[in-house]
Amino acid sequence: MTLVSPDTLISGARAGQLVSFPTDTVPALAARSDRAELIFTAKQRSPDKPLILMGASLEDLMPYVLGSAIELEAWRALARRYWPGALTLVLPASAAVPPAMNPLDPSTIGLRVPDCAIACEILAQTGPLATTSANLSGQPPLQRLADIDRAFEGVLTLDPEAIGPLPPASGLPSTVAKWAGDRWEILRQGSVNLQLPS
Length: 198
Hints:
By secondary structure, the chain is α/β, with parallel strands linked by helices. Helix content is 26%, strand content 21%. A hairpin with a 6-residue loop joins strand 2 (19-21) and strand 3.
């Protein structure tokens, strides 16, 4: 069993270990972005399924995108409306994004700020982390931290008893919207019903 305190999890994540913690949707399997390959290996995940970079705030994530002043303002406007929350924005990636985050198309990166206090507390101290749901590829996302701890040997999983009661997670994946040059495309409809500007 590797259920750990928030401090131990944060230290492990900073050191490059795989970690797992709750979010507002499903629990995350996470690592530093430069160790993203650990997630693909642990999940037996195909490289055509990119990871999401999760951060504690919009400003923490902005260094990872590259766009014109007009585009940056459009992205910020949508993020401010729905973050923190279950919306992932797929945007042009800056050179700060390791290619292992999205092996087949490193030119884009999915970004999200979760609406979950403990997740944001962790991310504020680790910096943005590469994340995905905690499950073997093709299987349903694991919902309980104890189940994640049993399924993934060596992953530092947050001990639910160390953080007290959490608000219920939705259990649904995030909605995914991709910037297509001058407009948004919805790639996946999740728990946020996105109202796009006309």
